[in-house]
Amino acid sequence: SSYQNKPKKPRDFDCIWGGLTLPRETLYKRINQRVENMIEEGLKEEVDALKPYQSLNPLRTVGYQEFYVSKMNHTPVPFDQAIELIKRNSRRYAKRQLTWFRRNKDVKWFAPQEYKQVIQYVKAS
């Protein structure tokens, strides 16, 4: 918030704000599928290989932290539970991102299939 509260520097260009949006059900379904794809592509093996570095900030992110030791009872998180936690935490992260962007009234929202309207919007701006 301290960064956002700093005085804005004048720019010699205008920003064009555009965002893609999906119905929540579709978004959550895609997030869940993406997590499944990550598992199929070897996320668990990657997490295991990086376990010695689990205390580093880059590994305290969604997709890694869920596999490491539970903070409450200091035991490893079961694999199936870790997967569900990754899905849940990814959905929550997406919701926070949307909330943050929706505060900006300059964002013009489009459905992904509205690519022609996006091009027109950019050309007109």
Beta fraction of the residues?
under 5%
- Tell me the Rg in angstroms: 19 Å
Order of helices and strands: EHHHEH
Structural class: mainly alpha
Counting DSSP H or I runs of 4 or more residues, the number of helices is 4
Q: Report the span from N to C terminus.
A: 29 Å
What's the helix and strand layout?
Elements: E1 18-20, H1 24-40, H2 43-50, H3 79-102, E2 108-110, H4 115-124
Parallel strand pairs: 1-2
Describe the model:
The structure is a single chain. 47% of the residues lie in helices and 5% in strands. With 125 residues, the chain is mainly alpha-helical. The protein has a two-stranded parallel ribbon with strand order 1-2. α1 (24-40) crosses α3 (79-102).
Short description:
This protein has helices at residues 24-40, 43-50, 79-102, 115-124, and strands at residues 18-20, 108-110.
Which structural traits does this protein have?
125 residues; mainly alpha; two-stranded parallel sheet
